[in-house]
From TrEMBL:
Pfam families: Acetyltransf_6. Residues 174-322 form the BioF2-like acetyltransferase domain. This is BioF2-like acetyltransferase domain-containing protein. It comes from the Bacteria.
Amino acid sequence: MDSFIRPAVEVVRSTAELDALESGWGELLDAVPDHSLSRTFLYNRVAWTHLAEPRGAELAVITVRRGAELLLIWPLHVERRRGHTTAAHLGNRSTQEYAAPLVRPGEHAAEALELATAHATRLADVLAVYHQPEAPLPVGGRLGSLAFASTTSSPLAVRPADGFDAWLATRPQKLRWEMRRNRRRLQKAGTVAFRSSDGDPAFGHRAVDWIFARKREWLVRRHKTTPWISDGSGEVFFHELLDGTPAGAAVRPLVVGVTLDDELISASVCYRSGRALEGFVMAFDESRASLGAGNVLIEECVRLAFDLGLDFDFRIDAFDYKLRWADRGTTHHTRFVPCTVRGLAPVAARHATRAYAELKRASTPLLTRYVPGVLSARARHEPPRRVAAALVQDVRARLLSPRSGDAAAPPPAAKPSG
């Protein structure tokens, strides 16, 4: 008789309904062997209560059940933007989480995901899905073909069978030399220690404040702002998450740091799961950059992950400094799907932004040749007036260059008389 029961979609719209879902959420997590901290009930409950709801967002957690069995949970919320609405995952506002529906493995998984996705496209003008692991969402419909799609790669250090030291011996020789040099410099500067929030929650809270203070300083120097860093909401989120996580939980936030004479010089918020330790956000003291504290922290994080029986996930963006440590990468998919006519413009803007970036990348050799001063000023994050002054200097230099045209070229030398 159970074979005739069809899966049904329900949407959780209130905080009370969300709280009622907690036990079922936990049972579903137990059935999914590999899930990040960002897909747990507590993570999404904190995100809703302290970040999304205060901004006037609407809760829209999609669930799919087959009879009494919970097949899927997709924690979304709907926000009003300029001229349109967007349905996106609940998170810490960084849009850096691995955000995807939580689906029970089994014969009904594909059907449940298809149902949830079809319903999600009816919640708002745009559906935004960030860094979904494995395959992208099965989005269809008349506007689905116009979706903006991108992929990111997360470098991964894979736990070896023979321990960290044997694994480190397989890294590039230059990296190993740098690590030995950095440790010697740190040890000459003072007493070095590696600390974590496990067993010391006060250190975790102190390190969170320190990380975001360094991030804000970095943004100010570059004349930039990022909401979840600049407005303090990221700190609020992680403090609440640390306070709400039971000690010893298998999936939990783990804040780590390197101290020099008990003063933080590098720190990171990590996510511990059953498979990996994710390095979510890291900062270091730029005034002591020559000590290489950031590199030492990375080494300690990888060592800690291996000691815990986990891989270390460097997370999205395959920067060179991560690739030196990585054994392989994992691919994640981001989609912005226009669900209504009003959703076409914001999605088209993303297509245009990517086209501009590709054009800029292709034109860099020409820019380097003709406006080197402008490029240097932008690389130093100079204010607009100085960039404009650099452009004027580049134009003058070009006009006065002997190669800029015959009018500016010197006259040919006279032939010697016979």
